[in-house]
Amino acid sequence: MIVISRELGVTCNACHNVQNFKADDKKAFKVGKEHMKLTQMLRENGMDGKKSAKATCYMCHRGKLMPDYKEPANAKAF
């Protein structure tokens, strides 16, 4: 969790209820749990660091709780 907190630029209490670390009463905890599943899925499907980049929280977050990336307004759908 120390690595994840550094990749997001936050401390434990940003996502966790420090009185009960397993509690999911914070929205950030629930979102983080889903994003961790996404990161694991990416690793299982080739982004494991062997032949390409390794999927991590830092890939999108760059040390910030909320990623800066925004889809361009003129982006075309597939």
In the predicted model, the low-confidence regions spanning at least 5 consecutive residues are none
The total tally of domains equals: 1
Radius of gyration: 15 Å
The biggest sheet amounts to: none
Element-by-element helix/strand order: HHH
- The termini sit apart by 37 Å
Percent in helix: 25-40%
Overall mean pLDDT: 88
Task: Report the count of strand segments.
Answer: 0
Structural class based on helices, strands and sheet pairing: mainly alpha
Helical run tally: 3
What portion of residues belong to β-strands? Answer: under 5%
Shape: globular
Pfam families: CytoC_RC
Function: The reaction center of purple bacteria contains a tightly bound cytochrome molecule which re-reduces the photo oxidized primary electron donor.
Protein name: Photosynthetic reaction center cytochrome c subunit
GO molecular function, one term: electron transfer activity
Explain what the structure shows.
InterPro entries: Multihaem_cyt_PRC_cyt_su-like, Multihaem_cyt_sf, Photosyn_RC_cyt_c-su. The reaction center of purple bacteria contains a tightly bound cytochrome molecule which re-reduces the photo oxidized primary electron donor. GO terms for molecular function: electron transfer activity; heme binding; iron ion binding. Keywords: Electron transport, Heme, Iron, Metal-binding, Photosynthesis, Transport. This is Photosynthetic reaction center cytochrome c subunit. The longest helix is centred in the middle third of the chain and has 18 residues, at 27-44. The chain has one domain (2-61). 37% of the residues lie in helices and 0% in strands. With 78 residues, it is mainly α. The chain has helices at residues 2-8, 27-44, 58-61. The chain is built from three helices and no strands.
